[in-house]
Amino acid sequence: MGDAPAENMITSAVSTARPAATTPHPGTLQTNQASTGAQPILAGPDDLFELIVRPLVKQSVRQRDRSGEVYRHDVFTGNFFNSIMEAIWEKYPPIVKHRAVKMNGVWSVETPDIAAWSTVMQFKVEKRLVSPNKNDDGWNEWLEKNTGATVTLMIYDYGMEVVTAKDRVAFLKACILPRETDRAGATAESSLREVVEALQQKWGGTFQASATVWRMWANRITRNLDRSTWAAEIANLPPSNIVHLLDPAESRLEAHLTDVAQSSNVALDCMLLDVFLDDQEQRLVARESIIEGIIRDLAPPSASEVVDPLPLIENIEDTEHAA
């Protein structure tokens, strides 16, 4: 968002904003050419003030101006300061990613609005910062004094509470960057699974899809590496490259029929299990009787119970060898 060209942003309907110079190369400091390169502007009958703005985007309050990113000059006209500020706010908020807030040593993220413009933007005239503590009359007097002049608009991409580069690192770690990343710096698998679960919890009642499609959707959300935007992206409707891969979730009737079929199958399985157990019980009883018979036959009979058959055998006379 921060590197979008300023000329592609929306221009206010209340006030007009026109380019006054060519766009400098990002990251380089451009000398003030507003007085020589600006096109003549015909203000409307109600436009009392004209302000030439030189946007300078910075990552922290103490970052040197020369290392900031300069956008091309724009001219704003209006009949009072609030109308000009509305036009400025409509044109440059895409540069402001979020507003960093530090409370009791803990960083958090807020979405800035025009009422808090002075927490993310600051005017500067000839190396002197302009105090934001002015009422409407004070700002109109300031406009009258600087009408037609070029003023620098300091825009802080995470707001003015990010004072130093160290503050920026701490804020990014606490609120923006993924908690875990892989060696390549991409979102780690654990964070990706969390987003998949959040998507399924949010949209599972509306859409159904394969695990691969849910991961594709989660990858699209997490690829910006800005954790603070993930919740809003999860709440949004699926993107165009994902929506055709999703199927409608089952209706209430279909879900009811599915539940009834599942319950019936469970009841049938229980009945079959009962029949199987009865059959197994009969088999075990038969096997028990066989084993008991084998055990009874294992012990030899006592000597008193064994009858010697030899004395009972009749002695047959030997007639063949008789003399």
Can you tell me about this structure?
Residues 28-38 have a biased composition (Polar residues). Residues 14-40 are annotated as: Disordered. The model is unreliable at 1-43 (pLDDT under 50). A hairpin with a 2-residue loop joins strand 7 and strand 8. 22% of the residues are buried. The chain has helices spanning 34-37, 81-91, 136-146, 165-176, 189-203, 211-222, 230-235, 240-243, 252-298; strands at 16-19, 49-58, 69-70, 74-78, 99-103, 106-110, 121-125, 128-129, 150-156, 207-208, 247-248. Helix content is 38%, strand content 15%. Among the domains are: 49-168, no CATH class; 178-248; 253-285. Strands 1, 2, 3, 4, 7, 8 and 9 form a seven-stranded mixed β-sheet that branches. A two-stranded antiparallel sheet has the order 5-6. It is rod-shaped and about 165 Å long. It has 323 residues and is α+β, with helices and mostly antiparallel strands.
Distance between the termini: 138 Å
Helix content: 25-40%
What's the helix count? 9
Would you count the extended β strands for me? 11
Q: What can be said about the biggest beta sheet?
A: 7 strands, mixed
Uncertain residue segments:
1-43
Rg, please? 43 Å
One letter per element, helices H and strands E, the order comes to: EHEEEHEEEEHEHHEHHHEH
The structure class reads: alpha+beta
Shape: rod-shaped
Mean pLDDT: 81
Strand content: 15-25%
Biased composition (Polar residues): 28-38
Region (Disordered): 14-40
